[in-house]
Design brief:
The complex is a heterodimer of chains A (about 190) and B (about 180).
Chain A (H helix, E strand, L loop, with lengths): L6 H5 L3 H20 L5 H24 L8 H21 L10 H4 L18 H11 L5 H8 L3 H24 L8 H6 L1
Helix pairs in contact in A: 2-3, 2-4, 3-4, 6-8, 7-8
Chain B lengths: L2 H4 L3 H9 L13 H8 L14 H12 L3 H9 L8 H8 L20 H35 L4 H7 L16
Classes of the chains: A mainly alpha (about 190), B mainly alpha (about 180).
Chain lengths: ~190, ~180
């Protein structure tokens, strides 16, 4: 599909090429944005935001596209949905005048960092992703396989290996209580 | 079929997840081109296990923290065109204006021979000269007519006596 547009001429800002690009891909971007928009009325504005993002700052975003790495339609769809989400998120942000904010809320609070109890490297990113999709997104194997571009057996295998690691890790942890833990008998004795 | 039906080890996952609070925040966000390559299965090096390929791992780590991105990947894989309104196309086209230097050339007017210009200006000059001469001649004829003949009463009233401003009815004027 990228062959349909002269990318070099497009990034030079040639009007005729831009017009051809808009005519060719407006329908694709409408389709991509429609999946993100909450209302039909938003679609036109979101499509305009996508085209604006593509051409602003001397086609800075457009210049990052590399046809050897991915198809133009695939890339445009991801850019369109990401842009649409950003725009909708910006619109949702409630704006409160700073005078209306109680002073106590403006005080800088010390940042509390949550302690990560288990090693992040225990599971591979793919294992984490598969488990997230199964147990948090409630997707089935076929949906996950389609999303990741793998076969269903790979999903089952990934899940199985991840669970073996977790079982092994927790079995080890349960037999070695952390130092400083109070014994249950002490708590009950008082 | 939901995941919970096939896999029933959610408590184990939840236990690990609770101890991982905030861990996914450190994942680097992949750019759109990386995501597009992932969606098309073109990410990663040939011969390298996809599960250990750093580029793929980066995308999957980010997606594990932001699973809503899966919808983007699904949409990208099934990208299809719709009919875009003419208004949408017109608005987007207008984002890029025609460059100011591209002025459409209009056809030049045919040049006239020099003698035609000379003739035109000569004609104008001759017309003006004739108008001046005729006007002068008419005025001159009128003056001659009035001075050579005895003026009638109406002509005298019209023209007036040349010495009228010296004659007065006032008797005291001679004092």
């Amino acid at each position: 599909m990228a062959d349909a547009v002269d990318l070099a001429a497009l990034c030079r800002g040639e009007k005729g090429t831009w017009d051809a690009f808009v005519r060719r891909y407006a329908g694709l971007i409408v389709s991509a944005v429609r999946g993100v928009a909450r209302e039909q009325a938003e679609v036109e504005d979101l499509v305009q935001e996508v085209f604006l993002r593509l051409c602003k700052d001397g086609f800075r975003l457009m210049r990052t596209y590399d046809p050897t790495r991915a198809g133009l339609s695939t890339w445009l769809t991801i850019v369109a949905r990401s842009t649409a989400r950003d725009v909708l998120r910006r619109r949702q942000v409630p704006s409160t005048p700073i005078d209306a904010v109680p002073e106590a809320l403006l005080a800088v609070m010390p940042k509390t960092t949550e302690r990560i109890k288990y090693p992040d490297t225990l599971l591979s990113p793919r294992q984490k992703l598969v488990l997230t999709l199964i147990y948090e997104q409630d997707l089935d194997v076929a949906e996950i396989a389609q999303s990741l571009g793998v076969d269903p057996q790979t999903v089952r295998s990934t899940h199985h290996k991840a669970m073996l690691k977790l079982r092994s890790y927790f079995a080890q942890e349960d037999t070695q209580p952390a130092a400083g833990d109070e014994r249950p008998t002490n708590r009950l004795s008082t | 079929m939901s995941g919970g039906n096939e896999f029933n080890e959610a408590p184990l996952w939840r236990r690990w997840r609770e101890g991982q609070a905030g861990a996914g925040d450190a994942a680097a966000e992949p750019d759109a081109l990386t995501l597009a390559a992932y969606a098309e299965g073109r990410l990663g090096r040939p011969g390298v296990d996809p599960e250990t390929d750093p580029a793929i791992a980066m995308v999957e780590a980010w997606m594990a923290a932001h699973p809503d991105l899966l919808a983007d990947l699904a949409a990208a894989r099934s990208a299809h065109d719709e009919i875009a309104d003419a208004a949408i196309v017109a608005r987007a086209s207008a984002l890029i204006a025609r460059p100011a230097g591209n002025v459409s050339a209009l056809p030049l007017r045919a040049t006239r021979p020099v003698w035609q210009d000379a003739m035109a200006w000569s004609g104008i000059a001759a017309t003006l000269l004739a108008a001046v001469l005729i006007g002068f001649q008419l005025g001159n004829d009128n003056v001659v007519d009035l001075s050579d003949s005895n003026p009638t009463v109406e002509q005298s009233a019209l023209i007036g006596s040349p010495n009228a401003f010296l004659v007065t009815d006032d008797e005291d004027s001679g004092i």
